[in-house]
Amino acid sequence: MEQQNVIQQAGPQQNDPVNHPSHYCGKIEVIDFILDRGADYLLGNVLKYVSRAGKKSPDTEIQDLEKARWYLDKKIGLLKEAEAEKQKQVAEALAWTE
Questions:
Q1: Contact indicator for 8, 33 with CB cutoff of 8 Å
Q2: At a CB cut-off of 8 Å and minimum separation 6, what does 53 contact?
């Protein structure tokens, strides 16, 4: 399937609660940026929560940023675990060859 150009030109958009909720819209929609960058689930959520922080309701700005931090911390933790596993395998391979 051929990828469509997902970034739209800036312009007024109507509030469509399903396809274009007002708190998701700006010059480009966040989903379009996430897809264009090929972000995984965790980083996609970081981008989503940071970009819309406080836009749905100013009262939830901190909560949105805390959600972004949760997803970012999860991503960092998984990367650290993968790196530690890789180092363990290298150490085991080196020990085996001695």
A1: no
A2: 61, 64, 65, 68
